[in-house]
């Protein structure tokens, strides 16, 4: 690490007797509310000098040990309390991967407040909506994203210039927190007595309609983080590279999972493939998370080469295609395919079976692309029939790998509610009713039943869930249901295809037929230049041997790029608009 | 595996639609009570055909896949319900490591009942006391231990001949459960709605007074098991050898931790060192648990040699001496030193520090013998001053590695209570008061504060706890407090010493002086035969260079064996009786 950096005086912890928050009164001796905030205190106690957070690819690099980082988190909590933040208040955070947002995942919880993690790729009008809807009481914003803020604001804004040096407004804020603490330390902050209290507030990117605010619980975040550390095997010797934005579903709970595992975290402000490869090759990276679209960028970067040590890639957000899995494995990246939504952390995982070892890479990849079985600390993930004649009882589809149903989930990792939207919350749950229970002198109302993911899937005889499509992604071709995902999986196996997306296009005879949008691999662009007709023919022939007739694409269109949401999901709604005009 | 064995017809699961218990009414969609029973259902769903349980070193070997084992567990639950067992009832289990007791850790929970795990090394009168005090409603007993039962019993007794074959009374019991289930499967059993319900009942071995019944909770057992799997790195490719008796503090929660991790478990009826070495060398063993006394037996067995693959040994029950740690590491056994009591699962762990790598093996071992810091899912472990002038506020001792205090703990892994003994329960907790809370329509009274372990310790500047002794193990020699544990640590470093125990003996001048009982290593017995005086001189000289004068043993006595409790703890109370007569 460069020796030019030393943390601000306020970041240096005192020789502390014990890192523990004030225990709330009245809790039984054998009941501790689950809270992922515990992890940073434990890491700072056990490995105070270990490198915890590295932010190196910026003008002002910083690196914090667990002890120093833990002190900064404490400072943030006190600074928020001094700024008038009360338990349950929302603290908006608008930042790329950087110490600011890493701090917020712990420090805001330490103030018993709720970080509202805002996507930096949104438009100012969307940010304004979220700030207003969440009623955030203060805004922590990175200097590059202040233009997203509305011109007039009634709440305080703290800007981070991402320097970690004295004079930076965020650093001054932390220093003010330290001063305000009067060295009461962690014992001056109270441990949140309610494990069902909100942990984070993240808004869905909502391809249609207003974004909805997903509220997670502390209990769910704790259990999801522990499960992620366990399933991904994150430990003291691990180094995690932040490619996935931390604002995306609270970084899939990895901001806490990494601390639980005592891993070193490296934050990258942007998805910069050459930089990612620099860290892969020089920083002993062992883990990272990313959606398939990012994984495609990684394996196709010119710097990509066989890794000296294997790296585990947690893949979620969409199913990886067989060809992507093969490309990752070829260079030593071991994909761990998990499935989740903003509404909870990773909820299922593809569990490799010993019997797959004897399969061809292609067949094995097909199995690996399935969403699999419930995660370590998740509970039910079921595929059920749609409601019938008003009867909303959950009936599982047969385990035949064919019958399409909807994925529903329940258990500790499921979200608490949509923020200030009881109607959408009620709609999101199925097969239950409103009930209530007492916990710690408080009466809580809640919906029983299961969370309705809106994802369509089959369940295979071995119990593995495999998403076929979201309901609107099914193409009804000649009366048959063709899964656009299954078609994409097959088209992606063509050696010239980098990325592909398939939507339904109206057809006079068949009702609907698949229309494929294809991005060619860089090395194949020249080959097909001016001959897209020939490529179309070749890809159709490729499909014919692999798909039933009704699922073969009727049209193939080569494009330079695909429209994507700010979180990297392909915007099929935009592709449908394009084909509607054809 | 031998092909001569096939499970009984009742053990063969049907092609099941879904392995899930009936969900209790009224639970919120995002709240699932924590319960380690979940693990076996999940393992059977994801890895149905994986080898789960191997019991091979017996006349009738058996081996069960997760699917078959899970069915047997279900059968046990139905059989218990058919036998009239209600939620909360105690089911006594008297068995060595074998499928019977492995089944009970899951199957009794599936009936919402509480396994009362009885030490097979107790006397009939002690067993009678426990059966009576626990008011167990049924007894599951291994055929070799029926003599422990009182001659007249009012409850049903199911004997296992440990054959796994039809005709075995235990197998008939399971078959009756299957018949009674009418193939309702898991859906016919209700999931325990209360995560704070009792999980297990284990009686302390109580060197003085009546044994006390320690009640653990489902929530605590779940979190302890997950932590053990995480900390020990137990995964699909792991094979766990059962040397530690499962009845000992519920096998330190490893009966569930192994299933959480999808590990294969091998059960050994007795601690048989040649057999242990057979499995170490031929069965791909990766993990086992054992107290130091068992570890000493392992490293000193004639079959001991350098292992082809490293094995992780979870060491608890007492601190391993530096010389034991060195002996283990020399042959490729990696010790993981944890600390706990019957009153909870492993609660602290010795966390290795990178800086230790540069230390001499002796110095490193001294650090490794410390009890360390709280475990992954544990909460507080503190060293506090004794109550002062009636004031029971918990005040931490300074982190100076010198000031002796008492270890107190709180958090989810702490026991719930002493069974039917509110007085002992109240005494066991310190620094709190009686409070209450509502959970799921039920009012629960509980003691706040911390559990009082009775173990004396110091806390080092790095926050690591190091036990010096239980209060009665301190030797007050010339007004100085000498730790018998510290003396034992130093004496054990002598090359001729296999095992050593030190107690206080009255001394005219100094008040008390240390008296050491020593077992010589097998290879050193001949050397000192008839010359124990010379050995005494040599060991005293050895001690002189390592210990302050007041802590040097005044007397050294060579013995053939040391008196031990049924769980392998050295009975210092008996040694004190011996020296009292001298």
List keywords for this structure.
GMP Synthetase, Chain A, domain 3, homodimer, nine-stranded mixed sheet, 582 residues, Rossmann fold, globular, alpha/beta, 28 strands
What is the compact description of this entry?
Chains A, B: Keywords: Fatty acid metabolism, Ligase, Lipid metabolism. The structure is a homodimer of 582-residue chains. By secondary structure, the first copy, chain A, is of the alpha/beta class.
Explain what you see.
The structure is a homodimer of 582-residue chains. The first copy, chain A, is α/β, with parallel strands linked by helices and 582 residues long. Chain A contains 16 helices and 28 strands. In chain A, helix 9 links the parallel strand 11 and strand 12. The mean pLDDT of chain A is 91. The interface between A and B is large, with 68 and 68 residues. Chains A, B: InterPro entries: AMP-bd_C, AMP-bd_C_sf, AMP-binding_CS, AMP-dep_synth/lig_dom, ANL_N_sf. Chains A, B: This is AMP-dependent synthetase and ligase.
Widest sheet, order of strands of chain A: 2-1-10-9-11-12-13-14-15
CATH architecture of the domain at 1-10 and 38-234 and 246-269 in chain A: 3-Layer(aba) Sandwich
Based on secondary structure, the structural category of chain A is alpha/beta
The CATH class designation of the domain at 1-10 and 38-234 and 246-269 in chain A is Alpha Beta
Give the CA-based shape of chain A: globular
Largest sheet of chain A: 9 strands, mixed
Assembly form of the protein: homodimer
CATH superfamily of the domain at 1-10 and 38-234 and 246-269 in chain A: ANL, N-terminal domain
Number of helices of chain A: 16
Global mean pLDDT of chain A: 91
């Amino acid at each position: 690490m460069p020796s030019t950096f030393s943390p601000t005086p306020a970041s240096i912890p005192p020789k502390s007797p014990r890192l523990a928050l004030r225990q709330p009164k009245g809790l039984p001796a054998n009941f501790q509310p689950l809270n992922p905030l515990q992890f940073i205190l434990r890491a700072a106690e056990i490995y105070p000098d270990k490198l915890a957070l590295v932010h190196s690819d910026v003008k002002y690099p910083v690196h914090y040990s667990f002890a120093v980082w833990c002190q900064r988190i404490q400072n943030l909590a006190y600074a928020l309390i001094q700024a008038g933040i009360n338990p349950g208040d929302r603290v908006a955070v608008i930042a790329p991967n950087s110490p600011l947002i890493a701090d917020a995942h712990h420090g805001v919880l330490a103030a018993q407040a709720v970080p509202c993690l805002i996507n930096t790729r949104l438009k100012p009008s969307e940010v304004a909506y979220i700030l207003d809807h969440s009623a955030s009481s203060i805004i922590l914003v990175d200097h590059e994203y202040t233009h997203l803020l509305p011109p007039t604001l009634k709440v305080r804004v703290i800007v981070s210039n991402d320097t970690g040096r004295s004079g930076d407004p965020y650093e001054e804020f932390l220093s003010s927190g330290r001063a305000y603490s009067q060295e009461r330390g962690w014992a001056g902050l109270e441990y949140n007595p309610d494990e069902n209290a909100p942990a984070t507030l993240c808004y869905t990117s909502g391809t249609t309609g207003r974004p909805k605010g997903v509220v997670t619980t502390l209990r769910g975040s704790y259990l999801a983080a522990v499960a992620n550390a366990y399933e991904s095997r994150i430990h003291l010797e691990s180094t995690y590279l932040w490619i996935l934005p931390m604002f995306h579903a609270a970084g899939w709970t990895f901001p806490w999972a990494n601390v639980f595992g005592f891993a070193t975290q490296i934050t990258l402000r942007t998805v910069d493939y050459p930089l990612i490869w620099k860290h892969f090759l020089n920083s002993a990276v062992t883990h990272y998370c990313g959606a398939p679209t990012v994984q495609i960028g990684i394996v196709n970067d010119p710097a990509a080469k066989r890794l000296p040590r294997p790296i585990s890639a947690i893949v979620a957000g969409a199913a990886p295609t067989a060809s992507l899995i093969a490309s990752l494995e070829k260079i030593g990246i071991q994909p761990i395919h998990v499935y989740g939504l903003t509404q909870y952390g990773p909820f299922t995982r593809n569990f490799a079976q010993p019997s797959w070892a004897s399969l061809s890479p292609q067949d094995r990849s097909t199995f690996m692309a399935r969403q699999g079985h419930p995660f370590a600390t998740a509970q039910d993930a079921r595929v059920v029939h749609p409601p019938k004649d008003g009867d909303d009882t959950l009936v599982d589809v047969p385990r035949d790998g064919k019958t399409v149903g909807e994925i529903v989930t329940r258990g500790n990792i499921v979200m608490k509610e949509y923020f200030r939207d009881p109607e959408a919350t009620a709609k999101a749950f199925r097969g239950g009713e409103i009930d209530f229970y007492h916990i710690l002198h408080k009466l809580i109302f809640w919906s029983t039943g299961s969370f309705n993911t809106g994802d369509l899937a089959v369940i295979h005889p071995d119990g593995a869930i495999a998403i076929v499509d979201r309901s609107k992604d099914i193409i009804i071709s000649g009366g048959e249901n063709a899964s656009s995902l299954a078609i994409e999986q097959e088209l992606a196996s063509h050696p010239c295809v980098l990325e592909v997306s398939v939507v339904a296009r109206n057809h006079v005879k068949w009702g609907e037929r698949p229309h494929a949008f294809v991005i060619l691999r860089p090395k194949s662009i020249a080959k097909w230049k001016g001959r897209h007709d020939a490529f179309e023919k070749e890809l159709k022939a490729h499909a014919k041997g692999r798909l039933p007739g009704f699922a073969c694409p009727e049209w193939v269109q080569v494009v330079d790029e695909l429209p994507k949401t700010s979180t990297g999901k392909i915007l099929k709604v935009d592709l449908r608009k394009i084909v509607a005009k054809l």
